[in-house]
Please model this.
Amino acid sequence: MKTILLFIISFTLSLYGCKNHTPNASTAHRHESAAEHASHDHEAEDHDHEAEGEGHNHPSLEKEKHTDEIIFTKAQAAKTEFEVQQIQPTTFHGVIKTSGQILPAPGDESVIVATANGIVSYNHKITEGASVSKNQILFHISSKHLGEGDYYSKVKANYEKAKAEYERAQALIKDRIISQKEYEASRLDYENAKIAFEAISGKQSANGIGVTSPLSGHLKNILVKEGEYITIGQPLATVSQNKKLILKAEVSEKYYPKLNSIRSANFKTPYDNKVYVLSDLNGKLLSIGKASANDAFHIPVNFEFDNKGEVIPGSFAEIYLISAPIEQALTLPLTALTNEMGLFYVYVQLDEEGYRKQEVSVGMNDGKQVQILKGLHPGERVVTRGAYQVKMASASGTIPHGHSHEH
Model:
């Protein structure tokens, strides 16, 4: 009985010990450290991923975002003529592009003609384009060794004879010895002889009769060769002052309805790449033709302007007739455009050294400015000088290391 009781007590105590069993301190510490370590590693991993998502630069994404960017450094820009302008709406004008010619203004040019028959010689060495002054002797005409005799001597003798006969007729008409008709004929002979003599009087020298310039200017052309025989009235040279010139535009008939809106023009000559603006040359519209030439089907439009010594009379010109205004137009200098396979491009500034190639559609141009129809927006900054250099820089196709992409 005692044995059975001891077994029951022992079994009961063993059951009670299993229910209230707690791990020792060493085992609990190991479990807690492992849990904390796992939690710490997980938080650290999350922290790294947050930092990577917010502050870490992904080279592949950045490169993909800026693959169209062209880098043109400040150092490169300093080596060439470079300019960037902000594009804004402005007032432009309609343009009719045509061709024409530069002509001397009426009264601004004079032809020198021979005042005698004979052999012509140059006074010193005159050349086309040389400056001359009014009354300066340019040619001499001599007939001393010709069979017809010296022209000056003949004119002088004829004048003296006509003068004597006229003075005699004045005395005879008072006494009614000669008729009024005879007197008038004598007077007419005298007047003609006087005019002929005065034309050469005072201009005679050992080299012959001097021929002078009627105005100051320059020799536009010389029409005779030295030693050539010439006759009275034959053109010898042309003197031009070039103070005023005429711009004559030949406009196609299809533009006739628009001609009344024309007020000014720009033009460009073949011998330089400069665009002349008539408003800068005190230019004004002279006339608009009302009919076309029989063989040309063009209507003439004429302007007058001051010549500052850079324009050659007689040269042909590319002309841009300026007509009605166009409000709120986007325009750029022609120097901003580059052409590739018939398409036009400009370079838009993204930041101090970054640029983007942009295709644009263009409208009319006046020789200096071009109308932008599509491809740009107000406020964008565009390369207006040095576009070709930026185009060359784009050939590298790379973005330098360390370049800032703050736009």
Observations:
- The radius of gyration is 49 Å.
- The mean pLDDT is 80.
